Amino acid sequence: MKILTCTQQKEADEYTIAHNSILSINLMEKAATLLTDAICKRWDKSHRIVIFAGPGNNGGDAVAVARMLHLKSYQVEVFLFNVTGKLSDDCLTNIRRLHECGFTSYHEVTSQFDAPKLTAHDIVIDGLFGSGLNKPLSGGFAAVVKYINASAAKVVSIDVPSGLMGEDNSYNIRQNIVQADITLSIGLPKLAFLFPENEELVGEWEVLDIGISQEYIENAETRYLITEEKDIRPLITPRHKFAHKGNYGHGLLITGSYGMGGAAVLSARACLRSGVGLLTIHTPVCNHTLLQTCVPEAMVEDDVHERFFAEPAELDNYQAVGIGCGLGQEEITAQAVIEQVRDCEIPLVLDADALNIFSTYRNNLSYIPKNTILTPHIGELERIIGRCSNSYERISKAKDLANSLQCYIVLKGAWTVVITPEGLCHFNPTGNPGMATGGSGDVLTGIITALLAQGYSEEEACKLGTYVHGLAGDIARNKVGEISLKAGDIIEALPEAWKSLTKN
Ligand SMILES: NC(=O)C1=CN([C@@H]2O[C@H](COP(=O)(O)OP(=O)(O)OC[C@H]3O[C@@H](n4cnc5c(N)ncnc54)[C@H](OP(=O)(O)O)[C@@H]3O)[C@@H](O)[C@H]2O)[C@@H](O)CC1
Ligand SMILES: [K+]
Predict the structure, then answer these.
(1) Which ipTM score applies to this complex?
(2) Could you tell me if the CB of 13 is within 6 A of ligand 1?
(3) In CA terms, which of 67, 317, 321, 465 is 20 to 30 Å from 302?
(4) 58 Cβ below 6 A of ligand 1
Protein backbone atom coordinates (compact mmCIF):
# COMPACT_ATOMS: atom_id res chain seq x y z
CA MET A 1 0.00 0.00 0.00
CA LYS A 2 1.38 3.36 -0.96
CA ILE A 3 1.62 6.20 1.49
CA LEU A 4 1.02 9.53 -0.21
CA THR A 5 1.97 12.99 0.96
CA CYS A 6 -0.81 15.38 1.93
CA THR A 7 -0.21 17.26 -1.32
CA GLN A 8 -0.62 14.03 -3.28
CA GLN A 9 -3.72 13.19 -1.24
CA LYS A 10 -5.24 16.49 -2.35
CA GLU A 11 -4.27 15.74 -5.97
CA ALA A 12 -5.77 12.26 -5.60
CA ASP A 13 -9.07 13.81 -4.45
CA GLU A 14 -9.04 16.19 -7.41
CA TYR A 15 -8.13 13.40 -9.84
CA THR A 16 -10.95 11.24 -8.48
CA ILE A 17 -13.42 14.09 -8.85
CA ALA A 18 -12.26 14.75 -12.43
CA HIS A 19 -11.97 11.16 -13.66
CA ASN A 20 -14.45 9.10 -11.65
CA SER A 21 -17.37 11.44 -12.31
CA ILE A 22 -18.02 12.18 -8.67
CA LEU A 23 -18.65 15.67 -7.33
CA SER A 24 -16.39 16.99 -4.60
CA ILE A 25 -19.38 17.38 -2.28
CA ASN A 26 -20.36 13.76 -2.87
CA LEU A 27 -16.85 12.56 -2.09
CA MET A 28 -17.17 14.45 1.17
CA GLU A 29 -20.58 12.84 1.74
CA LYS A 30 -18.97 9.41 1.25
CA ALA A 31 -16.22 10.31 3.73
CA ALA A 32 -18.77 11.58 6.24
CA THR A 33 -20.89 8.44 5.90
CA LEU A 34 -17.91 6.22 6.69
CA LEU A 35 -16.82 8.50 9.52
CA THR A 36 -20.31 8.40 11.00
CA ASP A 37 -20.45 4.61 10.76
CA ALA A 38 -17.08 4.32 12.50
CA ILE A 39 -18.28 6.61 15.30
CA CYS A 40 -21.67 4.88 15.73
CA LYS A 41 -19.94 1.49 15.83
CA ARG A 42 -17.99 2.63 18.87
CA TRP A 43 -20.42 4.82 20.84
CA ASP A 44 -24.15 4.74 21.46
CA LYS A 45 -26.56 7.66 21.81
CA SER A 46 -25.93 8.07 25.52
CA HIS A 47 -22.83 10.08 24.60
CA ARG A 48 -22.94 13.76 23.76
CA ILE A 49 -20.96 14.43 20.57
CA VAL A 50 -19.15 17.76 20.52
CA ILE A 51 -17.84 18.66 17.09
CA PHE A 52 -15.09 21.20 16.41
CA ALA A 53 -14.96 22.16 12.75
CA GLY A 54 -12.38 24.26 10.92
CA PRO A 55 -12.78 26.47 7.85
CA GLY A 56 -11.67 23.99 5.18
CA ASN A 57 -12.85 20.62 3.95
CA ASN A 58 -11.79 18.89 7.16
CA GLY A 59 -14.36 21.13 8.82
CA GLY A 60 -16.76 20.27 5.96
CA ASP A 61 -16.40 16.58 6.81
CA ALA A 62 -17.07 17.35 10.45
CA VAL A 63 -20.23 19.37 9.73
CA ALA A 64 -21.53 16.60 7.45
CA VAL A 65 -20.91 14.09 10.26
CA ALA A 66 -22.84 16.38 12.61
CA ARG A 67 -25.87 16.21 10.29
CA MET A 68 -25.67 12.44 9.95
CA LEU A 69 -25.36 11.88 13.69
CA HIS A 70 -28.19 14.35 14.35
CA LEU A 71 -30.42 12.46 11.91
CA LYS A 72 -29.61 9.28 13.82
CA SER A 73 -30.84 11.07 16.97
CA TYR A 74 -27.45 11.52 18.61
CA GLN A 75 -27.08 14.57 20.85
CA VAL A 76 -24.73 16.78 18.84
CA GLU A 77 -23.21 20.20 19.36
CA VAL A 78 -21.15 21.99 16.69
CA PHE A 79 -18.54 24.72 17.05
CA LEU A 80 -17.41 26.01 13.67
CA PHE A 81 -14.35 28.23 13.71
CA ASN A 82 -14.70 30.96 11.11
CA VAL A 83 -12.13 33.51 12.20
CA THR A 84 -11.12 34.78 8.77
CA GLY A 85 -14.60 34.82 7.22
CA LYS A 86 -13.39 32.39 4.56
CA LEU A 87 -14.94 28.92 4.47
CA SER A 88 -14.46 26.28 1.76
CA ASP A 89 -17.37 25.77 -0.64
CA ASP A 90 -18.07 22.23 0.56
CA CYS A 91 -17.92 23.36 4.16
CA LEU A 92 -20.48 26.09 3.41
CA THR A 93 -22.76 23.61 1.61
CA ASN A 94 -22.67 21.30 4.59
CA ILE A 95 -23.44 24.13 7.02
CA ARG A 96 -26.49 24.93 4.87
CA ARG A 97 -27.53 21.26 4.84
CA LEU A 98 -27.13 21.08 8.60
CA HIS A 99 -29.46 24.05 9.10
CA GLU A 100 -31.92 22.59 6.59
CA CYS A 101 -32.46 19.55 8.75
CA GLY A 102 -33.52 21.67 11.70
CA PHE A 103 -30.30 21.49 13.67
CA THR A 104 -30.02 24.24 16.28
CA SER A 105 -26.95 23.45 18.46
CA TYR A 106 -24.67 25.25 16.03
CA HIS A 107 -22.18 27.90 17.19
CA GLU A 108 -20.06 29.83 14.72
CA VAL A 109 -16.96 31.16 16.44
CA THR A 110 -15.69 34.33 14.82
CA SER A 111 -13.66 35.80 17.67
CA GLN A 112 -14.57 34.79 21.24
CA PHE A 113 -14.84 31.05 21.94
CA ASP A 114 -16.99 30.12 24.93
CA ALA A 115 -15.68 26.63 25.47
CA PRO A 116 -18.25 24.05 26.54
CA LYS A 117 -17.52 21.94 29.58
CA LEU A 118 -16.43 18.50 28.44
CA THR A 119 -16.88 15.38 30.52
CA ALA A 120 -15.35 11.92 30.29
CA HIS A 121 -18.60 10.65 28.76
CA ASP A 122 -18.46 13.17 25.87
CA ILE A 123 -17.03 12.42 22.47
CA VAL A 124 -15.07 15.18 20.74
CA ILE A 125 -14.89 15.10 16.96
CA ASP A 126 -11.81 16.98 15.84
CA GLY A 127 -12.42 18.37 12.36
CA LEU A 128 -10.36 21.53 12.72
CA PHE A 129 -7.61 20.87 10.19
CA GLY A 130 -6.67 17.94 8.01
CA SER A 131 -4.36 17.57 5.09
CA GLY A 132 -4.56 21.29 4.27
CA LEU A 133 -2.60 22.36 7.36
CA ASN A 134 0.27 24.49 6.13
CA LYS A 135 2.00 25.61 9.33
CA PRO A 136 2.01 24.70 13.01
CA LEU A 137 -1.09 25.81 14.88
CA SER A 138 -0.75 28.92 17.02
CA GLY A 139 -2.85 31.55 18.78
CA GLY A 140 -6.54 30.80 19.21
CA PHE A 141 -6.37 27.42 17.47
CA ALA A 142 -3.50 26.32 19.71
CA ALA A 143 -5.66 27.32 22.70
CA VAL A 144 -8.56 25.20 21.38
CA VAL A 145 -6.21 22.23 20.95
CA LYS A 146 -4.90 22.61 24.51
CA TYR A 147 -8.45 22.78 25.83
CA ILE A 148 -9.39 19.59 23.93
CA ASN A 149 -6.28 17.82 25.17
CA ALA A 150 -6.91 18.88 28.76
CA SER A 151 -10.45 17.49 28.70
CA ALA A 152 -11.40 13.98 29.77
CA ALA A 153 -13.51 13.44 26.65
CA LYS A 154 -12.64 10.78 24.09
CA VAL A 155 -11.27 12.42 20.95
CA VAL A 156 -11.84 11.25 17.39
CA SER A 157 -9.77 13.05 14.78
CA ILE A 158 -10.97 13.28 11.22
CA ASP A 159 -8.20 12.39 8.75
CA VAL A 160 -5.33 13.54 11.02
CA PRO A 161 -5.11 14.93 14.53
CA SER A 162 -5.42 18.68 13.95
CA GLY A 163 -2.02 20.35 14.00
CA LEU A 164 -0.13 17.22 12.92
CA MET A 165 1.64 17.39 9.57
CA GLY A 166 1.28 14.27 7.47
CA GLU A 167 4.99 13.68 7.02
CA ASP A 168 7.60 15.85 8.68
CA ASN A 169 6.90 17.28 12.11
CA SER A 170 10.47 18.35 12.85
CA TYR A 171 9.45 22.00 13.14
CA ASN A 172 6.03 21.47 14.65
CA ILE A 173 4.90 22.51 18.12
CA ARG A 174 3.91 19.33 19.88
CA GLN A 175 1.65 20.81 22.54
CA ASN A 176 -0.41 22.49 19.79
CA ILE A 177 -1.42 19.17 18.23
CA VAL A 178 -4.62 17.34 19.14
CA GLN A 179 -4.10 14.11 21.08
CA ALA A 180 -6.60 11.77 19.51
CA ASP A 181 -7.82 8.50 20.93
CA ILE A 182 -8.83 7.45 17.44
CA THR A 183 -7.84 8.84 14.06
CA LEU A 184 -10.07 8.01 11.12
CA SER A 185 -7.82 8.56 8.14
CA ILE A 186 -9.46 9.29 4.83
CA GLY A 187 -8.15 7.46 1.76
CA LEU A 188 -4.71 6.27 2.84
CA PRO A 189 -2.65 6.33 6.03
CA LYS A 190 -0.20 9.18 6.61
CA LEU A 191 3.52 8.64 7.09
CA ALA A 192 3.44 10.37 10.47
CA PHE A 193 1.15 7.62 11.83
CA LEU A 194 4.00 5.12 11.60
CA PHE A 195 6.36 7.05 13.87
CA PRO A 196 6.52 6.02 17.54
CA GLU A 197 6.64 9.57 18.89
CA ASN A 198 3.25 10.26 17.26
CA GLU A 199 1.49 7.30 18.86
CA GLU A 200 0.04 9.42 21.68
CA LEU A 201 -1.20 11.99 19.14
CA VAL A 202 -2.71 9.61 16.58
CA GLY A 203 -4.02 6.95 18.96
CA GLU A 204 -5.57 3.94 17.32
CA TRP A 205 -6.00 4.59 13.59
CA GLU A 206 -8.19 3.26 10.87
CA VAL A 207 -8.27 3.99 7.15
CA LEU A 208 -11.60 4.76 5.51
CA ASP A 209 -11.76 3.81 1.84
CA ILE A 210 -13.70 6.56 0.08
CA GLY A 211 -12.86 5.22 -3.36
CA ILE A 212 -9.88 7.36 -4.33
CA SER A 213 -8.92 6.77 -7.97
CA GLN A 214 -6.85 3.57 -8.21
CA GLU A 215 -5.35 4.92 -11.38
CA TYR A 216 -4.00 7.94 -9.53
CA ILE A 217 -2.62 5.78 -6.73
CA GLU A 218 -0.94 3.37 -9.13
CA ASN A 219 0.83 6.19 -10.94
CA ALA A 220 1.69 8.25 -7.88
CA GLU A 221 5.38 8.32 -7.07
CA THR A 222 6.20 7.65 -3.47
CA ARG A 223 9.16 6.55 -1.40
CA TYR A 224 6.98 5.17 1.40
CA LEU A 225 4.96 1.97 1.28
CA ILE A 226 3.30 -0.39 3.74
CA THR A 227 3.97 -4.04 2.90
CA GLU A 228 0.86 -6.17 2.74
CA GLU A 229 0.35 -9.93 2.76
CA LYS A 230 -0.61 -9.75 -0.90
CA ASP A 231 2.87 -8.33 -1.66
CA ILE A 232 4.57 -11.06 0.37
CA ARG A 233 2.89 -14.26 -0.78
CA PRO A 234 4.07 -14.08 -4.42
CA LEU A 235 7.67 -13.69 -3.24
CA ILE A 236 7.73 -17.16 -1.72
CA THR A 237 9.11 -19.78 -4.10
CA PRO A 238 7.61 -23.23 -3.58
CA ARG A 239 10.04 -26.09 -2.92
CA HIS A 240 10.55 -28.53 -5.77
CA LYS A 241 9.37 -32.09 -5.50
CA PHE A 242 12.81 -33.47 -6.34
CA ALA A 243 14.67 -31.01 -4.18
CA HIS A 244 17.60 -31.94 -1.96
CA LYS A 245 19.32 -29.92 0.73
CA GLY A 246 21.85 -28.65 -1.77
CA ASN A 247 19.10 -26.74 -3.57
CA TYR A 248 18.43 -24.45 -0.65
CA GLY A 249 21.82 -23.04 0.02
CA HIS A 250 24.40 -23.38 2.72
CA GLY A 251 24.24 -20.53 5.20
CA LEU A 252 26.92 -19.44 7.65
CA LEU A 253 26.26 -17.63 10.90
CA ILE A 254 29.23 -16.03 12.60
CA THR A 255 27.77 -15.58 16.04
CA GLY A 256 28.25 -15.96 19.77
CA SER A 257 30.98 -15.28 22.29
CA TYR A 258 31.63 -16.26 25.89
CA GLY A 259 28.38 -15.62 27.78
CA MET A 260 26.43 -14.91 24.61
CA GLY A 261 26.03 -18.35 23.12
CA GLY A 262 22.26 -17.95 23.33
CA ALA A 263 22.28 -15.42 20.49
CA ALA A 264 23.99 -18.02 18.31
CA VAL A 265 21.40 -20.64 19.26
CA LEU A 266 18.47 -18.34 18.50
CA SER A 267 19.71 -17.13 15.13
CA ALA A 268 20.62 -20.68 14.10
CA ARG A 269 17.27 -22.14 15.10
CA ALA A 270 15.41 -19.38 13.25
CA CYS A 271 17.60 -19.92 10.20
CA LEU A 272 16.80 -23.63 10.16
CA ARG A 273 13.08 -22.89 10.54
CA SER A 274 13.21 -20.65 7.47
CA GLY A 275 14.15 -23.13 4.82
CA VAL A 276 17.94 -23.09 4.63
CA GLY A 277 19.40 -26.28 3.09
CA LEU A 278 22.47 -26.48 5.31
CA LEU A 279 23.70 -24.34 8.15
CA THR A 280 27.12 -23.91 9.70
CA ILE A 281 27.74 -21.83 12.79
CA HIS A 282 31.18 -20.33 13.20
CA THR A 283 31.63 -19.63 16.91
CA PRO A 284 34.32 -19.54 19.62
CA VAL A 285 35.33 -22.90 21.06
CA CYS A 286 33.43 -22.26 24.35
CA ASN A 287 30.11 -22.50 22.50
CA HIS A 288 30.86 -25.74 20.67
CA THR A 289 29.02 -28.14 22.95
CA LEU A 290 26.12 -25.76 23.52
CA LEU A 291 25.45 -25.46 19.80
CA GLN A 292 25.95 -29.11 19.00
CA THR A 293 23.44 -29.90 21.70
CA CYS A 294 20.87 -27.17 21.15
CA VAL A 295 21.00 -27.04 17.36
CA PRO A 296 21.89 -30.59 16.23
CA GLU A 297 20.78 -29.86 12.66
CA ALA A 298 23.61 -27.34 12.22
CA MET A 299 27.33 -27.92 11.79
CA VAL A 300 29.66 -26.10 14.13
CA GLU A 301 32.97 -24.65 13.03
CA ASP A 302 35.21 -23.63 15.91
CA ASP A 303 37.00 -20.32 15.82
CA VAL A 304 40.68 -20.35 16.81
CA HIS A 305 39.76 -18.47 19.98
CA GLU A 306 38.30 -20.02 23.09
CA ARG A 307 35.95 -17.14 23.92
CA PHE A 308 35.69 -14.68 21.05
CA PHE A 309 35.44 -14.55 17.29
CA ALA A 310 39.04 -13.86 16.34
CA GLU A 311 39.75 -15.14 12.84
CA PRO A 312 37.68 -14.68 9.67
CA ALA A 313 36.01 -17.80 8.33
CA GLU A 314 36.58 -19.23 4.88
CA LEU A 315 33.46 -18.36 2.84
CA ASP A 316 33.96 -20.42 -0.31
CA ASN A 317 31.30 -23.03 0.46
CA TYR A 318 28.48 -20.74 1.50
CA GLN A 319 25.74 -18.86 -0.30
CA ALA A 320 25.09 -16.32 2.47
CA VAL A 321 26.55 -15.20 5.76
CA GLY A 322 25.05 -13.49 8.82
CA ILE A 323 27.46 -11.82 11.22
CA GLY A 324 27.01 -10.15 14.56
CA CYS A 325 24.59 -11.82 16.97
CA GLY A 326 26.20 -12.06 20.40
CA LEU A 327 29.71 -11.46 19.04
CA GLY A 328 30.81 -8.88 21.60
CA GLN A 329 33.12 -6.04 20.71
CA GLU A 330 36.56 -7.21 21.79
CA GLU A 331 39.37 -5.59 19.83
CA ILE A 332 40.31 -8.97 18.35
CA THR A 333 36.69 -9.51 17.25
CA ALA A 334 36.46 -6.04 15.72
CA GLN A 335 39.49 -6.68 13.53
CA ALA A 336 38.16 -10.09 12.47
CA VAL A 337 34.72 -8.67 11.65
CA ILE A 338 36.15 -5.84 9.57
CA GLU A 339 38.41 -8.21 7.67
CA GLN A 340 35.61 -10.74 7.16
CA VAL A 341 33.25 -8.07 5.85
CA ARG A 342 35.86 -6.41 3.65
CA ASP A 343 36.63 -9.65 1.85
CA CYS A 344 33.08 -10.98 1.68
CA GLU A 345 31.75 -11.66 -1.80
CA ILE A 346 28.53 -13.47 -0.92
CA PRO A 347 25.22 -12.02 0.33
CA LEU A 348 25.80 -10.65 3.80
CA VAL A 349 23.73 -9.65 6.84
CA LEU A 350 25.26 -7.44 9.53
CA ASP A 351 23.56 -7.27 12.90
CA ALA A 352 24.11 -6.18 16.48
CA ASP A 353 27.79 -6.14 17.46
CA ALA A 354 28.94 -6.22 13.84
CA LEU A 355 27.13 -2.89 13.44
CA ASN A 356 28.49 -1.57 16.73
CA ILE A 357 31.99 -2.43 15.56
CA PHE A 358 31.50 -0.45 12.37
CA SER A 359 30.18 2.50 14.34
CA THR A 360 33.31 2.40 16.48
CA TYR A 361 35.60 1.97 13.47
CA ARG A 362 33.69 4.34 11.22
CA ASN A 363 36.51 4.74 8.73
CA ASN A 364 35.88 1.16 7.70
CA LEU A 365 32.22 1.69 6.78
CA SER A 366 33.21 1.88 3.13
CA TYR A 367 34.43 -1.73 3.37
CA ILE A 368 30.84 -2.92 3.66
CA PRO A 369 30.09 -4.54 0.29
CA LYS A 370 27.29 -3.26 -1.90
CA ASN A 371 23.89 -4.85 -1.24
CA THR A 372 24.78 -5.88 2.32
CA ILE A 373 21.79 -5.99 4.66
CA LEU A 374 22.21 -4.01 7.89
CA THR A 375 19.66 -4.81 10.59
CA PRO A 376 20.03 -2.15 13.31
CA HIS A 377 17.58 -1.12 15.99
CA ILE A 378 17.34 2.62 16.60
CA GLY A 379 20.27 2.69 19.04
CA GLU A 380 22.57 0.78 16.71
CA LEU A 381 21.61 2.97 13.76
CA GLU A 382 22.15 6.21 15.67
CA ARG A 383 25.59 5.05 16.74
CA ILE A 384 26.39 5.18 13.04
CA ILE A 385 24.39 8.18 11.79
CA GLY A 386 24.34 10.27 14.99
CA ARG A 387 21.49 11.17 17.35
CA CYS A 388 18.22 12.12 15.69
CA SER A 389 15.47 14.17 17.26
CA ASN A 390 12.58 12.45 15.48
CA SER A 391 11.69 9.52 13.24
CA TYR A 392 11.44 11.56 10.05
CA GLU A 393 14.98 12.82 10.51
CA ARG A 394 16.15 9.30 11.41
CA ILE A 395 14.60 7.74 8.32
CA SER A 396 15.98 10.51 6.11
CA LYS A 397 19.49 9.94 7.46
CA ALA A 398 19.10 6.16 7.19
CA LYS A 399 18.13 6.63 3.54
CA ASP A 400 21.30 8.67 3.02
CA LEU A 401 23.35 5.89 4.62
CA ALA A 402 21.67 3.18 2.52
CA ASN A 403 22.35 5.25 -0.53
CA SER A 404 25.97 6.06 0.23
CA LEU A 405 26.79 2.43 1.09
CA GLN A 406 24.42 1.08 -1.58
CA CYS A 407 23.08 -1.21 1.12
CA TYR A 408 19.75 -2.31 2.55
CA ILE A 409 18.84 -1.14 6.03
CA VAL A 410 16.25 -2.96 8.11
CA LEU A 411 15.50 -0.46 10.87
CA LYS A 412 13.86 -2.52 13.61
CA GLY A 413 11.03 -1.32 15.81
CA ALA A 414 7.24 -1.10 15.65
CA TRP A 415 6.73 -0.69 11.89
CA THR A 416 10.17 -2.05 11.04
CA VAL A 417 11.21 -0.33 7.85
CA VAL A 418 13.20 -1.85 5.01
CA ILE A 419 15.17 0.88 3.26
CA THR A 420 16.59 0.11 -0.17
CA PRO A 421 19.71 1.65 -1.70
CA GLU A 422 17.39 3.67 -3.96
CA GLY A 423 15.69 5.15 -0.91
CA LEU A 424 12.39 3.25 -0.97
CA CYS A 425 11.00 2.64 2.51
CA HIS A 426 8.84 -0.45 3.00
CA PHE A 427 7.10 -0.41 6.38
CA ASN A 428 6.30 -3.81 7.85
CA PRO A 429 2.85 -4.18 9.42
CA THR A 430 3.31 -7.40 11.40
CA GLY A 431 4.69 -7.73 14.91
CA ASN A 432 3.76 -6.49 18.37
CA PRO A 433 5.29 -4.93 21.51
CA GLY A 434 5.87 -8.38 23.02
CA MET A 435 8.71 -8.77 20.53
CA ALA A 436 10.65 -5.97 22.20
CA THR A 437 12.73 -8.54 24.05
CA GLY A 438 16.30 -9.82 23.94
CA GLY A 439 17.02 -12.25 21.13
CA SER A 440 14.21 -11.09 18.86
CA GLY A 441 16.74 -9.46 16.53
CA ASP A 442 18.89 -12.59 16.48
CA VAL A 443 15.87 -14.49 15.22
CA LEU A 444 15.43 -11.97 12.38
CA THR A 445 19.08 -12.28 11.37
CA GLY A 446 18.71 -16.06 11.20
CA ILE A 447 15.61 -15.77 9.02
CA ILE A 448 17.11 -13.26 6.59
CA THR A 449 20.33 -15.27 6.30
CA ALA A 450 18.29 -18.37 5.48
CA LEU A 451 16.43 -16.52 2.74
CA LEU A 452 19.60 -15.12 1.19
CA ALA A 453 21.17 -18.59 1.21
CA GLN A 454 18.16 -19.90 -0.71
CA GLY A 455 18.71 -17.35 -3.42
CA TYR A 456 16.14 -14.71 -2.55
CA SER A 457 17.28 -11.23 -3.57
CA GLU A 458 18.33 -8.85 -0.81
CA GLU A 459 15.13 -6.84 -1.12
CA GLU A 460 12.96 -9.96 -1.06
CA ALA A 461 14.86 -11.37 1.91
CA CYS A 462 14.41 -8.14 3.87
CA LYS A 463 10.71 -7.77 3.14
CA LEU A 464 9.81 -11.42 3.49
CA GLY A 465 12.05 -11.87 6.52
CA THR A 466 10.63 -8.95 8.50
CA TYR A 467 7.08 -9.89 7.57
CA VAL A 468 7.33 -13.53 8.63
CA HIS A 469 9.28 -12.56 11.77
CA GLY A 470 6.47 -10.22 12.82
CA LEU A 471 3.82 -12.72 11.85
CA ALA A 472 5.48 -15.42 13.97
CA GLY A 473 5.61 -12.86 16.79
CA ASP A 474 1.88 -12.26 16.42
CA ILE A 475 1.16 -15.99 16.47
CA ALA A 476 3.36 -16.33 19.56
CA ARG A 477 1.54 -13.46 21.24
CA ASN A 478 -1.76 -15.23 20.72
CA LYS A 479 -0.32 -18.24 22.52
CA VAL A 480 1.65 -16.72 25.38
CA GLY A 481 0.64 -13.05 25.52
CA GLU A 482 2.81 -9.98 25.04
CA ILE A 483 4.31 -9.96 28.50
CA SER A 484 5.55 -13.54 28.47
CA LEU A 485 6.68 -13.54 24.87
CA LYS A 486 10.36 -14.44 24.47
CA ALA A 487 12.51 -14.81 21.37
CA GLY A 488 12.29 -18.61 21.46
CA ASP A 489 8.49 -18.34 21.16
CA ILE A 490 8.93 -16.49 17.86
CA ILE A 491 11.01 -19.37 16.54
CA GLU A 492 8.43 -21.91 17.72
CA ALA A 493 5.76 -19.96 15.84
CA LEU A 494 7.77 -19.77 12.61
CA PRO A 495 6.38 -23.03 11.19
CA GLU A 496 2.82 -21.77 11.58
CA ALA A 497 3.77 -18.38 10.12
CA TRP A 498 5.40 -19.96 7.06
CA LYS A 499 2.49 -22.35 6.67
CA SER A 500 -0.05 -19.55 6.77
CA LEU A 501 1.86 -17.62 4.10
CA THR A 502 2.11 -20.61 1.77
CA LYS A 503 -1.34 -22.16 2.14
CA ASN A 504 -3.91 -21.28 -0.53
N1 LIG B 1 -10.96 17.45 -1.37
C2 LIG B 1 -11.87 16.49 -1.21
O3 LIG B 1 -12.62 16.24 -2.09
C4 LIG B 1 -11.99 15.78 0.06
C5 LIG B 1 -11.36 16.23 1.22
N6 LIG B 1 -11.56 15.66 2.39
C7 LIG B 1 -11.23 16.33 3.63
O8 LIG B 1 -10.64 17.56 3.34
C9 LIG B 1 -9.49 17.78 4.13
C10 LIG B 1 -8.56 18.70 3.44
O11 LIG B 1 -9.28 19.87 3.25
P12 LIG B 1 -8.57 21.24 2.88
O13 LIG B 1 -7.65 21.04 1.77
O14 LIG B 1 -9.65 22.22 2.70
O15 LIG B 1 -7.69 21.53 4.15
P16 LIG B 1 -8.04 21.65 5.72
O17 LIG B 1 -7.16 20.72 6.44
O18 LIG B 1 -9.47 21.59 5.99
O19 LIG B 1 -7.53 23.12 6.09
C20 LIG B 1 -7.51 24.15 5.16
C21 LIG B 1 -7.84 25.45 5.85
O22 LIG B 1 -7.02 25.63 6.96
C23 LIG B 1 -6.33 26.86 6.90
N24 LIG B 1 -5.05 26.65 7.56
C25 LIG B 1 -4.06 25.80 7.22
N26 LIG B 1 -3.10 25.79 8.15
C27 LIG B 1 -3.50 26.63 9.13
C28 LIG B 1 -2.94 27.05 10.37
N29 LIG B 1 -1.75 26.58 10.80
N30 LIG B 1 -3.62 27.92 11.13
C31 LIG B 1 -4.82 28.40 10.72
N32 LIG B 1 -5.39 28.07 9.55
C33 LIG B 1 -4.75 27.18 8.76
C34 LIG B 1 -6.27 27.17 5.44
O35 LIG B 1 -6.20 28.54 5.25
P36 LIG B 1 -5.16 29.18 4.20
O37 LIG B 1 -3.84 29.08 4.87
O38 LIG B 1 -5.22 28.33 2.97
O39 LIG B 1 -5.64 30.55 4.03
C40 LIG B 1 -7.61 26.63 4.97
O41 LIG B 1 -8.64 27.56 5.25
C42 LIG B 1 -8.96 16.41 4.37
O43 LIG B 1 -8.14 16.37 5.50
C44 LIG B 1 -10.24 15.63 4.52
O45 LIG B 1 -10.68 15.73 5.86
C46 LIG B 1 -12.44 14.51 2.45
O47 LIG B 1 -13.72 14.98 2.70
C48 LIG B 1 -12.46 13.73 1.16
C49 LIG B 1 -12.83 14.57 0.06
K1 LIG C 1 -8.55 16.80 12.04
Answers:
(1) 0.98
(2) yes
(3) 465
(4) yes
